[in-house]
Amino acid sequence: MTHAPAQSPAESTIDPAEVAKFEAMAADWWDHLGKFKPLHMLNPVRLDYITRQIAAEFGLDLTADRPLQGVRVLDIGCGGGLLCEPLARLGADVTGVDAAGGNIPVARLHAEQSGLTVTYRHAAAEDLAAEGAQFDVVLLMEVIEHVANPGAFVGVCAQLLRPGGLMLGSTLNRTPKSYALGVVGAEYVMGWLPRGTHDWRKFVTPDEMTDHLHKVGLDPVDRKGMVFNPVRWAFSLSDMDLSVNYICASRKPA
Predict the structure, then answer these.
(1) What average pLDDT is seen over the chain?
(2) H/E element holding 6?
(3) Which of 228, 159, 202, 213 is CA-nearest to residue 21?
(4) What is the CATH number of domain 16-251?
(5) For 133-165, how does the pLDDT look when each residue is reduced to its tens digit (9 = 90+)?
(6) What is the DSSP string of 98-148?
(7) Where are the domains positioned within the chain?
(8) How far apart are CA 232 and CA 173, in angstroms?
(9) CA 67: distance to chain centroid?
(10) Which residues, at least 6 apart from 77, have a Cβ–Cβ distance to it below 8 Å?
């Protein structure tokens, strides 16, 4: 299988317009009722999926006090640290990077106030790849739909995985339903997100994601839908419904 060639930092996958959107919202990351309310609602189901996949892949016991002790995790597009902090509490050695520099001091301050150790950097995936950094787990959560070149981005992220490592990513499917719920509903009807946060044309279908993963030498091992239940007012995992939000796991061959 042909692996994508390494990119130089000059071949950035960053979309400056997308970065600017999140710079403008940086101060709101830890407001559960603010502009990132959808991510706070998604966080429990994302964290459950992430921890279960890591435990299954590396033979860890999630009932232990710090079950992820010693696991090196990179969260690309970490924002204010919504996933970094709970993973650090579980014992993981967590690094969070974000191309939006305004997110980093917010994340650092909140981690410090929470008594947690997380390494935060204002950086892109390309920067870490150029340094030769590698991790046990790489997270791409709600970020691929905001980059300039999804295939190239996945290729850079794959370089950051050690052999035998695990990549976990979540995004929005490109369907009429995702436009109705993820754009019109979330941004215009419910007002959960500022208008213009998402460009439906940049959403990535599960098959496109699988193709990106295969092209860079990763083996997809699982994918699930994340479905919103308006009665319970919560998200849950689904084996069948990937029509709006979905999350997937892939392995780098050892």
Answers:
(1) 89
(2) none
(3) 202
(4) 3.40.50.150
(5) 999 999 999 999 989 999 999 999 999 999 999
(6) ES-TTHHHHHHHHHHHTT---EEEE--HHHHHHHT--EEEEEEES-GGGSS
(7) 16-251
(8) 22
(9) 21
(10) 97, 98, 99, 140, 141, 142, 143, 146
pTM of the model: 0.88
Instruction: Give the integer Cα–Cα distance in Å for 129 and 57.
Output: 23
The alpha carbon torsion through 105, 108, 109, 113 (nearest 10 deg) reads: 170
Q: How far apart are CA 112 and CA 128, in angstroms?
A: 24
Closest residue by Cα to residue 166 from 51, 246, 82: 51
Q: Which helix (H) or strand (E) holds 38?
A: helix 37-58
Show the tokens assigned to 229.
């239940």
C-alpha neighbours within 13 Å on the C-beta side of residue 222: 16
pLDDT in tens, 76-112: 999 999 999 999 999 999 999 999 999 999 999 999 9
Closest-CA residue to 92 (of 78, 106, 105, 102): 78
d(CA 66, CA 74): 18
The answer to whether 248 and 209 are in contact (CB under 8 A) is: yes
